[in-house]
Amino acid sequence: MNFASIGLNAARINRPGYTNFELQKTNNMSNRKTWFITGASKGLGLSLVKQLLKAGNNVAATSRSIAGLHKAIGENIEGFLPLAVELTSEESVNTAVTSAIDKFGSIDVVVNNAGYGLAGSLEELTDKEARTNFDINVFGALNVIRSVMPHLRKQGSGHIFNIASIGGFTGNFPGFGIYCATKFAMHGFTESLAAEVKAFGIHATIVSPGYFRTNFLEPDSLVVPKNEIREYKEVREIQRIHQDEINGNQEGDPDKAALAMIRVAEDKNPPLHLFLGKDAYQLAYQKMESVTSELKKWESVGTATSFEQAQPAIA
Question: In terms of residue numbers, what domain contains 246?
Fold first, then answer.
């Protein structure tokens, strides 16, 4: 599977819009809820905030800068609480969660959306570059989960959405290994989280978007290696395609993705895995077919690994 060609082709696919979402939104959101959203000043997070406020919900929105939230969303808006948060600081996260509960009385839905893309081959990226990506994409989300869980357990309800990526389900993306690793980590801990909190009446959903037309591939969002190695020509070409050709041409509409998540949040039996976009579905099915094929091919080798059973003695 060629990542670059799939990504570019997926960005150019035409598909019908989810024309029923607007009608469903009014019906499904009759009960006012409080959402806590990280990375809310742009991208999918911003789309969520706008759709939720439009429907009359409460939103505690976090970003590194309150000014950025005001610029993107506005000021003195009913039901809107902008919060400046440093996700790598447990103290900062705890303060934000407490502020949201003090303001609205509860938190019903949590969206761990904050994160950034990191390009570069594994050999090129330094330890610091890789760890910083994990600090935000993985440990930032874990800080939020640890902070909000006591409240959700006490109220006996809640829903946590962790925004991963199709790159957290299939890692066949040359030049995005560390970013994919952060999203694979999110897939893993969210599956465990869902099992751990089920008894408390809390749901957890992994969101795996494909290509959506956000600022994800913009220069100020997609970090590239400081020390490029010229031999990685394929990695450079894939990086160029993302920045120059896919960027701005992504098929996915973030507003429709937001409405899809809102619809899932209203369901009594929400999915653990939510893939968003035709391209995400295509890549997910390809990964599953590949794994199934290899399981079958190597089953006799892979299962011949048990201790031999002792033969009963013959009298």
Answer: 3-11+34-292
